[in-house]
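Lab meeting, action items carried over

1. Structure of the two-component assembly. Owner: GW. Status: complete.
Input record:
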Amino acid sequence: DIQMTQSPSTLSASVGDRVTITCRASQGLSSSLAWYQQKPGKAPNLLIYKASTLESGVPSRFSGSGSGTEFTLTISRLQPDDFATYYCKQYNSNSALTFGGGTKVEIK
Amino acid sequence: EVLLVESGGGLVQPWGSLRLSCAASGFTFSSHWMSWVRQAPGKGLEWVANINQGGSEKYYVDSVKGRFTISRDNAKNSLYLQLNNLRAEDTAMYYCARDHVVPGVIWDYWGQGTLVTVSS
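Predicted assembly:
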């Protein structure tokens, strides 16, 4: 199975900061990578798919990039509503889907 | 409005069984792959199983193969997960999720989850 390594596991930032989260895959994914945001006690919410396509309704301060084995999620100017945990997920195969370990974005 | 509502969770003893259900509304259920994803308390997300539109293709994470069975009833707009031979490590919130219309297993709608606790 493809292993996903996400870093950092925790990130402390302030409102207005630019934030970058990295996800590395153990083998090439082409662009089959999605990013989800999860707030405490809630289901995850899709932000980005196909590595860089913004899901409808997601603010444009979120962006994704990368291909192959290295991917990034960037929040251009952190807002109070963005403090949450973020997960990458590879979907290179329908039969073996794996998430990164998550990045918790905390208030500095 | 797309809505996914899970039910069937609860406290069960090790080696016990449960059947989770996910009632779907607000979209053409029979047109979408569906998945179950779980999250152990304080831990990350783990894909559990998925099923194609007609129910002929089913896939599972290795840790549940032979113990869990995913199924669907398109006439009832419902997704199911049968959990057998439960272990303590199966304790988690179980979410059902709908596949996006674009190609690839991308989940655009999720239910609120149903909690399964395996303990004696």
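2. GW to write a short summary for the group page. Key points so far: The first strand of chain A starts at residue 4 and ends at 7. The radius of gyration of chain A is 13 Å.
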